[in-house]
């Protein structure tokens, strides 16, 4: 009895200390920061968490559990469905927005919001990359890179290369026995994006770079602790190695250009040659940061979404059957002289497109993007103070039962005769900073699934393998499986 009483006292004391610490954190952030009385009274409901770490422990705890959505649902349970909550995330006082109205407003209002990625993320991805530059610089670089990546002519050229590599990879994997399906897919998509930007097909270089990118991505969603043994420390080292490789490539390409050595024109040449209206060209830091970001985004998302789409198709035979029937019909309409898939056929893959959209919705590869308030902004009656970060929480948006009934069910048919309400489906972002490689990504995924569905099947070694949600959703075994030829 005495022991139980002591334990109860200790527990009560611990709870009291915890409450006092959190109270102090909230007081410090509200009272010591230069916020006016009107700003403080108008802040959204929420919880600023613990001193220094804020809500990061809660965030990481949720995303390392089997229920990552518990992080935001805890705000909803405590403060109601306001669609906007204050928090302290990634070292900054922040506001989380979770509904279509709030997300769309933040993403499309360039007068009130600018990119607001944490300093730790900018250090990894690059201050001169798309996520760190001004609206004017972003617009210029987007104009430069969008057409060579997403344009009709470019996609027609890349399609043949994508298809050849997909067919070779599937044949090779079917002969390898057990493979980490995700790892192999990421190698495939990295080869494709390297071809587009650097015309490079060196296995040694690509494998080395891809390993560095894996380490880099583990640090993007981690706490910014720059000490040996921590993910962020390792990620900074990976970035340093990537920058060194890209610098050597830039130097070699400049030498080739000076000597007029013939080579296949690619995105690197476009970056070296582009000039603004004043004749200014990109310096090496700008070129390297753009390359580093594009090569990362251009293979990670495609690889992960392709894996999940394949898994979902295998787990839902009725969906697989309907998808396969569509692809077989496309084959039946071909002439005997046609060598491969055309862009016109890709546009005709209506149901497969719904499979991809449903996978994008359910997985939500990028769970959040960051903006910063350029001035005090009022949304839903609440004030977002100037300088506060705004976290656009795509994951909650895509799993909202108000927009998507039975949201955690894989159901491509939900897209039949359905146009999502503006702001409810944002797999590639929205507004002026919409992902410039979205069409290329969907083309890669569709071409892979076209050949896989018609000729192969996936046999997972551990079908019940738990899922990790950071930095991106994936089975813990990277989808250990065998690829069987039909």
Beta-strand segment tally = 12
Structural class: alpha+beta
Element order: H for helix, E for strand: HHHHEEHEHHHEHHHHHHHHEEEEHHEEEE
State mean pLDDT (0 to 100 scale).
Answer: 86
| Share of helical residues | 55-70%
- Write down the domain tally: 1
> What is the CA–CA distance across the termini?
68 Å
* Rg over alpha carbons: 24 Å
* Rough outline: globular
Classified by CATH, the class is: Mainly Alpha
What's the CATH H-level superfamily name? Cytochrome P450
Q: Strand sequence of the main sheet, in spatial order?
A: 1-2-8-5-3
**Unreliable segments of 5+ consecutive residues:** none
Task: Describe this protein's structure.
This protein is of the alpha+beta class and 486 residues long. It has a single domain (33-485), classed as Cytochrome P450 (Cytochrome p450). Helix content is 56%, strand content 10%. The strands form 4 sheets. The protein has a 5-stranded mixed beta sheet. Strands 4-12-9 form a 3-stranded antiparallel beta sheet. Strands 6-7 form a two-stranded antiparallel ribbon. The longest helix is centred in the middle third of the chain and has 32 residues, at 284-315. The N and C termini lie far apart (68 Å).
In short:
The chain is an alpha+beta fold and 486 residues long. The protein is 56% helix and 10% strand. The strands form four sheets. A five-stranded mixed sheet has the order 1-2-8-5-3.
